[in-house]
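Bug #77: duplicate submission created two jobs. Keeping one. Sequence:
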Amino acid sequence: MTDRQREFRNALGCFATGVAVATAAGQDGPVGLTINSFASVSLDPMLVLWSIDKASDRYRLFKSAAHFGVCVLDDAGQDISSRLSRKGGGGIAEDVAKTGKGGVPILKHALAHFECAAEARHDAGDHVILVGRVLDFDYRSHGHPLIYYRGRYRALVSSDG
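Kept job's structure:
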């Protein structure tokens, strides 16, 4: 990574994001990958997107998956997020609460989850943007999200006075 790329990454880190895990059914069991590029695209039809680094050890699985999930982590999900952000840490069998549509694993620490059919894939530099058509979703009305800001996990703090 060049100095300019490092500075660009630091500037991007000024944008606080929620932490999510993309999930899919792998040949050897359920697989996950920590992401912070998750975003909504459309309400009608219901579409979401996220991006994956082409250098990821899970790139081939997600690029070819017919279905994937996105699980928005709660504030107790830091350990799984850390594990799934590293190469070789993709197995999630012990973290799965249930299996959704298309065999999509849903995580125990999901504050919200989206079960998707792969809709489109777009080449974007060193990443591929994956667009998913939401087949089903659910969320908890209680709990707090896991937040990432300037290279560290953070807690959500209310500004209600």
